[in-house]
Amino acid sequence: MLRAHAGLNCIWIGGATPAQKAAKGPAGVIGPDGKWVTQCPAAPEPSLAIAVLNCDDPLYDIPLQRARPWRLRARQGDIYREKMVDDPRSENRSGY
Hints:
Elements: H1 2-9, E1 13-15, E2 28-30, E3 36-39, H2 61-76, H3 88-91
Antiparallel strand pairs: 1-2, 2-3
């Protein structure tokens, strides 16, 4: 779920896991592309995941420079405004 959330929202996510549960899903940092940047070992010993969050990294060009602005415009309705239907039947939300 964390990977999907990071990828869909183009954000970094740091996921923490108790050391005794590391075998089921170790802690780590997920990049804005939804892929793990770094992960702790899946061992029951305490460890630390460290990552550099670089917005200018070419690896994150699409999620940060291209996808994020498009999603912002989509949420505001700008990219669909010209395709909106102006018909009285579309305004009546209570009938068919």
